[in-house]
Fold each of these.
Amino acid sequence: MIQETISGWQLGQWLEDAKAECLVLGISAHEVHWFVQELTGLDRLTLRLQTFKQQPSVPLQVPWSELTQLWQRRLTERIPVQYLVGVTHWRQFTLKVSPAVLIPRPETELIIDLAQSAAENLDQDGIWADLGTGSGAIAIGLADIFPRAEIHGVDTSLEALAIAQYNAETTGFADRIQFHHGSWWQPLDFLQGKLTGMVSNPPYIPSNLIPTLQPEVAHHEPTLALDGGGDGLDCIRDLVETAPRYLRSGGLWIVEIMAGQGEAVAGLLQAQGSYSKIKIISDLAGFDRFVIAYLK
Ligand SMILES: C[S@@+](CC[C@H](N)C(=O)[O-])C[C@H]1O[C@@H](n2cnc3c(N)ncnc32)[C@H](O)[C@@H]1O
């Protein structure tokens, strides 16, 4: 609901100041536009071309005082802008986020395309699982690319599952995705041997690295979503060991990993003995980012 307006000229002045503050703190100046875009009715092009400066009044979705206070919290507390505005954009979706969920990352968008191409010769109408669903992003992406598939999303966090459910509803996929509370496969016991594919972006950061991450991540994103134990591979080890019981023969196993973990994860899959066609896949920046395998 529009509660207030501000003159285009005043907004222009504020934007200039906010961008200068970003420069000092090493925050991308794009964030200011993104922040204003979410909290006003202005679109990206209008902000970039600054045509709003001639507008006598720009409508706001929150009072001006609240908008500026939120921005101050961005700068002083290093709260991610997505948590401040309550949404993020991921693939073609606008997803609700809160500090209860990891902010879905642009690099994770690729896992959906990978699942699609890796599943070309599989039964795409089958049953798919997104283990560690968080905001529900991957489950929603899978529902989108596999229009007749049955999707299951699992998380141990009830707060995350409430957000995932909300996102499934607002994106129109609620009837295609079932969310379950529990640890990895445990709530999917009834699907043993039936899964066409498992897609997961599990916690994979080594515990001792978490305090060294940028403050937006280390202080504000849920540790449950980040911490992969001593070497970062605790959850992945679990998924390597347990997935063969749930995947059907030929079923797909895809996991997001951290740069440098590719060889170790491929080694775990190899040693487990039930997988074939194990492949490490790099992201657009050229770092190990995903590992794919198929159940023999
Ligand atoms: C890295 S986040 C990924 C969230 C989302 N899938 C994404 O890609 O944006 C990892 C998720 O795994 C969940 N998680 C951690 N341990 C889990 C477990 N034992 N069983 C199920 N989910 C778990 C966390 O709550 C978090 O939502």
Note: The chain has twelve helices and eleven strands.
Amino acid sequence: MANIRVHALAKEIGVSSKELLEKLNNLNIEVKNHFSTLTDAEEKKIRDSYNKKNQKNSPTNNKVKENKTNKKQNFNKKTEGNTIEAKDQKSSREPKKRFDPNKNRFNNRDTKDRKDNIDSGRNNKNTSQKNFKKDRNNKADYSENKFNNKRNDNNKDQNREKNHNFKTKERSFKDSNRENGDYKQDRKVKSRSFNKMSEVLTEKDAKKQEYSKKKSSKNKNYKNNKVDRFELQEEYKQRDLSKKAPKKKVKKQLKKEVEVEENVVIQVQAPLMVKDFAKALDVSVSTIITKLIGLGIMASQNESIDSDVCELLADDLGIEIEISAPGVEESIEESFELDFEDPEKSLKARPPVVTVMGHVDHGKTSILDAIKESHVTSTEAGGITQHIGAHTVTSKGKKITFLDTPGHEAFTAMRLRGAQITDVAILVVAADDGVMPQTIEAISHARSAHVPIIVAINKIDKESANIDRVKQELSEQNLIAEDWGGDTIMVPVSARTKEGIDDLLEMILLVAEMGELKANPNRMAIGTIIEAKLDKGKGPMATVLVQKGTLKANDFVVSGIASGRIRAMNDDKGKRIKKAGPSMPAVILGLSDVPNAGDLIYAVKDDKTAKTIADKNKEILRENKLNNANKVSLENLFDKIKEGEMKELDLIVKGDVKGSVEALCQSLLKISNDEVKISIVHSGVGGINESDITLASASNAIVIGFNVRPNINAIELAKAEEVDVRTYRVIYDIINDIEAAAKGMLEPEFVEEVQGRCQVRQTFKLPNNNIVAGVYVLSGKITRNSTIRVLRDDKVIFEGGISSLKRFKDDVKELQTGFEGGMVLDGFNDIKEEDSFEAFIMKEVERK
Ligand SMILES: Nc1nc2c(ncn2[C@@H]2O[C@H](COP(=O)(O)OP(=O)(O)OP(=O)(O)O)[C@@H](O)[C@H]2O)c(=O)[nH]1
């Protein structure tokens, strides 16, 4: 025999689940929640205790009980051999299994009536009248059908049930002046008691009800009501007493009643695994899996389901759930108190952390080497620095930590992972070459991260060096040298002769001093993983840059999913160390896995904590894989503005010529309105490259290309990072799109779908003077009906159709990756070897 659940017994006894749970607790019966089941002995114990209590109560209560029992008996007699009454099944052990379809229908109404009553009760003093009207209407509705008697019975029982419930509620609010008796009296009592209950609900449960109402608002509510009504009508039309209603509906109904009466809202954090969802709802995994199959979703118990599916399932089960997204809850840092603000007086000055950036070949590595050579070997014991991702030098008794991987890409890649470890950026500009495209990129990357820039004008030993020209070009990028009236420190250096290197270090220390870089060294350490690898002999090795506190050689640590106790710790010179303070790099051994560069690492109090956090991170990782990154796109821009998520739209603008880029930026900046401010994170001449995409990703920006296209790597990266890249041929269209997106009016009907890319390997002239491009397909495919965009250095020089596509001598419909073919373009003959052709089609999309 199945055991009864707490909520069912509570309902039967006429107390709230909460009250019963308290009672169970007092009786030392251990249960988890209102869905827990009770053994026979436990049930008896609780019933006995309530019986005793009831006996002690006023005679009215006894009368009620007796009355109820009699009715129950009578009713059971009436329904014998025909239908089984649902409510009275509560006294049986399997309330959900033995159930009558007709009763189910009335229950539907009952539940709905209650919903209506509860809702209206809050606002309407005439609830009872309305209620009775409804009851009467119920009768009228069904009066002509041949099941009249039974319905009356059901209605009576329904009233009795309500009466009983209301009485219970009343009882709990100490209203003893309640009458009870025959059917008429029932109605009277119901009228009064419901009014009372409505009031009580208004006062006490209004919030809860409001919430659940809100929760199931809009379509959910609408859908439910619609379904309920529809089901009711349909079932009524088609009812066949010889058939029992499907059990699931009964369950659904019963569950619904429980929910409506008790307002139980189950908290679910989606996405989650099927088995976890089943556990949260206290239903079997197989029930969930079956329901999923019903929804056309094949999922095992270990697969995750998203919030939409959870809602559908809960709806189907008649259980009210509240879905929260991961991240809304306490973060791991919060729950384990991993990070906290240090009191001002505990803060001590710490060395600056520096990244070197600049255009290719301008001397980034040479400057880093020059610094190491002149400031490491001579001053530090131990000798040559190891490549560990970061190293420390000492200048005038003060330490400076340099990140070993130069370049803004590495810097932004780190930022992308949430690590902002750089305090000062050194922008290397070769004095003989001046400001180049990557110099401008580096400036944008540093600015976007709000990191101060010191310019190192390198290669001053060269004859062709022209420092003033560099300063002039930099001023065009709004970096004005101090001696030119600006506030950017510019140091002429030579990595070759080491001239100016000391000055550079001095300036770094000066900027650091102005930045008042401080940290508390006396706390458990927090750092960032700079580099990590798996060493065949030593296991996972990680370079940590300590940011707060002091990392000790035998600390328990956790970083992402990796945890463990530090077995050994070395500094950047390969020397064993016992501790590393703020801004110091250290290589550690002892982690269980190879952590991710850019992830934080925490020292924790013990192994158990480290492991627990790592496990939690594993869970989050799994969930995050299911959640899409919430990147901005022109499509979702308006929603984000509306939700208050976006106040500023960051753009990266690339174009084919300087003049048009500048004009475009000016026009874009004018779009700013009260809701959204447009800001240009970076602008430049040339194709859209990976650096643009990483910057866009790190700063949640949209990339706009005018007459330029992303290269293949940038396309791949944009896809992976979900960066919205828009390319245009007409400035007016860009302005229109951004304006429309900011107003929520962007509704594209056609979108471009790139099919493939090919490269021109050879050109031939036909007798009619048309040029045939001998092409090799690099990616995707080229179809005969696609439009071709001719790219030279990622700049668009022509866009048009194909007039002929051949493979050897045959006309073909398409050329796949890895194939060669000949192509003549419609109206374009200026084809050159090394040109790229991008094939695309315009695809119609549904308006949103
Ligand atoms: N004359 C002279 N040559 C230099 C100086 N600094 C660097 N070079 C030379 O410039 C070239 C590029 O130097 P790198 O340090 O490799 O430049 P980089 O910016 O690190 O280059 P990538 O890593 O390729 O971006 C090398 O041949 C260096 O020898 C300098 O101060 N004077």
Note: The chain has 25 helices and 35 strands.
